[in-house]
Amino acid sequence: MRTTNKRVLANYLQWRTVQGYSPFLPPTMREPFYKFKANQTGMFNSPIPERWEDCVFLSLAMMDMPVGKLYVENYFDKERAMQKVITILNIS
């Protein structure tokens, strides 16, 4: 990074900031981001996601661990899991 032009670094940081907020931007401001993303991935025919699709994706990404924790707390049989671990340990 010491040899990288400061303008290049500034542009990169600005782009990463916009990228992080892109799902929350109005459609006219989201479009350039998705065009750039299509250019990166080569998927030019992919439609720009609707706002609800971005919302679902973000919710799944952010809530993955908390929802898993709730599932384990409410539905995971710890005693049965321990029995399986003991069985596996006895096999080896």
TrEMBL record:
Coiled coil: none
InterPro entries (alphabetical): Peptidase_M13_dom_2, Peptidase_M13_N
Domain Peptidase M13 N-terminal: 3-85
GO biological process: proteolysis
Record Gene3D superfamilies: Neutral endopeptidase , domain2
Protein name: Peptidase_M13_N domain-containing protein
Species of provenance: Toxocara canis
